[in-house]
Structures are given as structure tokens and as C-alpha cells.
Amino acid sequence: MGCFITMEGPDGSGKTTQIQLLRDYLSGKGYDIIVCREPGGTKISEAIRQVILNKEFTEMGNMTELLLYAAARAQLMEEVIRPALKEHKIVICDRFVESSAVYQGIARGMGVDLIYEVNQYAIGDTLPDLTVMIDIDAETGISRKKQQAELDRMERETIDFHKKVVSGYREIAGKYPERMLRIDGRASIQEIHEQITAAVDKIIS
Ligand code: ADP
Ligand code: TYD
Prior knowledge:
binds adenosine-5'-diphosphate, alpha/beta, 13% strand, five-stranded parallel sheet, binds thymidine-5'-diphosphate, 205 residues, Thymidylate_kinase
């Protein structure tokens, strides 16, 4: 089997930036890499993403939201992640089930147990070998996003919601320290990259 790495953290924590650097680093070492993002990564999952993040769908219920994220994930697992791991590739995914645990389970208040139960159907027994969690406070993360592009439905949530996301990530990272690496997102892009490569080198060697 290959190696499955997921990148987690609040909006604007630097996940996409770090994934690009990690991909270049691992490609440079000759590894076969697949990068994907959630929700998305397949034609169907990207179509579901358009529904989930549409800023006009403010009436979306919590259960609909949870199931749409899980549906996008199920398709990505089947079409991309499992086949790539079988071919011994390194898969790096921008967000995974911990995003549902934090955003839907904690910030929306649906309960973490329900999230893992529902997502069991989407992911089966394919779990990440390493989850990197970049920690950033809500104000910094959202202000970085505002400078980048128009905010989507989730990013338009209240600052209170984003604060719950931040504390939710801290809670989950504290619960599973053996498989989650928590990194201070206020450090420089290069410093964070070095912490990530040190952890990744350990698991792929
Ligand atoms: P995410 O994918 O987690 O939402 P991005 O990687 O898109 O975050 O980063 C959001 C913005 O913050 C980008 O403009 C990026 O250049 C900037 N950024 C990323 N990491 C850092 C960092 N460590 N320090 C300062 N700015 C950063
Ligand atoms: P994305 O665009 O990757 O966020 P970012 O702004 O960090 O680049 O992700 C879209 C949004 O979806 C983001 O606000 C987090 C949210 N999300 C959930 O609420 N649950 C989930 O299971 C996933 C994968 C994402």
C-alpha cells in the first residue's frame, strides 16, 4: 500500500500553500504523488462542492450539509484515493474526515460520534497514515481568505462559528496525538514546511 497524508486546519491556515510545497518536495525525491482536495477531486465531488459552497444556499440544513460532504468523500475514495494507494502512490488530501468532525460535529453541534459513524460508510477502513493540523486563530485565518478571493458559504459564517472550528481542531488534535501533528500556523511558510517534511520523512522511510 502507498501512503495517505491529510492536511487539516481552519480556513486560511495555509493548507493549500503547504500541500504545494510538500508535493514539490516529494516529487523531487522521485515519489509518485496524487494531490486532491475536499470537497472535490472528482467530477461528481466537484459538482457536489458547487452545491455545498454556493453562497446563496443559506437555507441548507445541517444534515444535508453533513451528507453532501460524506457523498463527495465516498466518490473521491472510490475513484481516486483507494486506487492510488493500491498503486503504492503517496496521496495528499486537502481536508478529510476531521474537517467533518470539526465543522459539522463540533461547530454545527451535530456531535463527533455521529460524524464518524456516517463517514464510516464513505471511507471504510482507509485511514490516513498522518494528519497534519495547522493551527491558526479565526481572525487571522479569515482575514487571509478575504484578501485572496470572495468568501464562500462556509467562510461567510459568523466569527463565533470560526472560533468553534479553531477550538474544535484543538480538541480533536489533543484527543488523537498519535496520528495528528499539530503545527503553529503563525510560523513562516518555510518553517511550517520544514516541520511537515520532517514528519513525512519519518513515515515514508
Ligand atoms: P488554506 O488552504 O488553509 O485556506 P492557503 O494556503 O490558501 O490556506 O493560505 C491562505 C493565504 O494565507 C494565502 O494568501 C497564503 O499565501 C497565506 N499564507 C499561508 N501560509 C502563511 C503563513 N505561514 N504566514 C502568512 N501567510 C500565509
Ligand atoms: P476549502 O475550500 O478547501 O477551504 P479553505 O478555505 O480552507 O481552502 O473547503 C471548503 C469549506 O468546507 C471549508 O470552509 C471547510 C468546509 N468543510 C466542512 O465543513 N466539512 C468537511 O467535511 C469538509 C471537507 C470541508
